[in-house]
Amino acid sequence: MNKPHTPARILHRLEVSLEDRSYPILIGTGLIGSVAAWQPFVSPGQVAVVTNDRVGPLYLATVRAVLGELGVLPLEIVLPDGEAFKNVDSFMQIMDSLIAHHIERKSLLIALGGGVVGDMVGFAAACYQRGVPFLQVPTTLLSQVDSSVGGKTAINHPLGKNMIGAFYQPQAVLIDLDVLASLPNREFSAGLAEVIKYGAALDRAFFDWLESSIDRLMARETEALAYAIERSCQIKAEVVAADEREAGLRAMLNFGHTFGHAIEAGLGFGTWLHGEAVGCGMVLAADLSVRLGQLSVQDRARLVDLVGRAGLPTRPPGWPAQKYLAAMAHDKKAQSGEIRYVLLQGLGRSELKPVGPDTVGETIRALTGAAAH
């Protein structure tokens, strides 16, 4: 656990360029316990730290001490842990606490946790008094490389993932590599799914690097992790700067997610981790890309191999195709009743296009072994 006054070692600093809403991403070690790392983003006044009952015992005392050094006594809101709690009840728990403690519009919210906490706090910040500043302090690999960057905030609805939300950018993102040392293997692998996504969908050279470096990443070597996180955030920042509200290019960041969200909803949110579902979703999307003549069988095999080496599932649940199609009908990329998929045109190149249910069904049946009904 980091202690106050731990020297911050900033390895990379990136910028998300959005004119007056631009903000930095700091990647380094010792950041959570460093007063100097927090100081530019925390002013004397009201601060609320939102975390969960798993992350809180690890880092909340450290954050409290650092904020104390900066003259702040924070309101602490602790939510239950897990994707199953990314819902309106948890959202209202945040709102109830903010209102009960008379938190004002110029106050700062801090999201201390993984993607679930980050998404909910971002949405709460967007809604509370029509918008208050917030800071992302992601504590999982998945949230560090993906959900903490870019301003997509949301909660889940029983009929679909992230269906209720807003685009709302943070003031900054503090990424502390030290937290990854204690991350369970399953959650670490889930984060690698989003890293692989960037290479497969948008950066062939990065995909090649991931293939050659996956063993170092699985061993959690600091240098390899720092580069993987930096490159992932760099790609995300460039895409967000070009297409903040997902009018076109940003949709490519959803490679594997249409199938993945269907798996999450079908199993019940939290049964598979988000990254596990995305990893398997990428395998399904790659197979669909092959069936449409856009991706070679060899490149599909490379992707499936990398997903497996990252410790992620490559075989989807064995449901009928109709169950998948029904779940995907709620996907946010659907238009005029057509389900659109992010498909590979080769490793590192992708496009968004509608695909008919018959072809999608062929992919589902081939990978699940489910009967054709």
Write the layout of secondary structure elements.
Layout lengths: L8 E8 L6 E7 L5 H4 L8 E6 L3 H14 L5 E5 L8 H13 L7 E6 L1 H13 L6 E5 L2 H7 L4 E6 L2 E8 L5 E4 L8 H18 L1 H15 L3 H21 L14 H11 L6 H18 L5 H13 L11 H8 L11 E7 L2 E6 L2 H12 L5
Parallel strand pairs: 2-9, 3-4, 3-5, 5-6
Antiparallel strand pairs: 1-2, 7-8, 10-11
Offer a concise description of the structure.
With 373 residues, this protein is α/β, with parallel strands linked by helices. It is built from 13 helices and eleven strands. It has two domains: 9-182, 3-Layer(aba) Sandwich (Rossmann fold), CATH 3.40.50.1970; 185-368, Dehydroquinate synthase-like - alpha domain (Dehydroquinate synthase-like, alpha domain, Up-down Bundle), CATH 1.20.1090.
| Strand line-up in the sheet with most strands | 4-3-5-6
Number of strands: 11
Q: By helix and strand content, what is the structural category?
A: alpha/beta
Distance between the termini: 52 Å
CATH architecture of the largest domain: Up-down Bundle
CATH class of the largest domain: Mainly Alpha
Order of helices and strands: EEHEHEHEHEHEEEHHHHHHHEEH
Describe the structure.
It is a single chain. The chain has 373 residues and is α/β, with parallel strands linked by helices. The chain folds into two domains: 9-182, 3-Layer(aba) Sandwich (Rossmann fold), CATH 3.40.50; 185-368, Dehydroquinate synthase-like, alpha domain, CATH 1.20.1090. The protein is built from 13 helices and eleven strands. The strands form four sheets. Strands 4-3-5-6 form a four-stranded parallel beta sheet, with helices on both faces. Strands 1-2-9 form a three-stranded mixed beta sheet, with helices on one face.
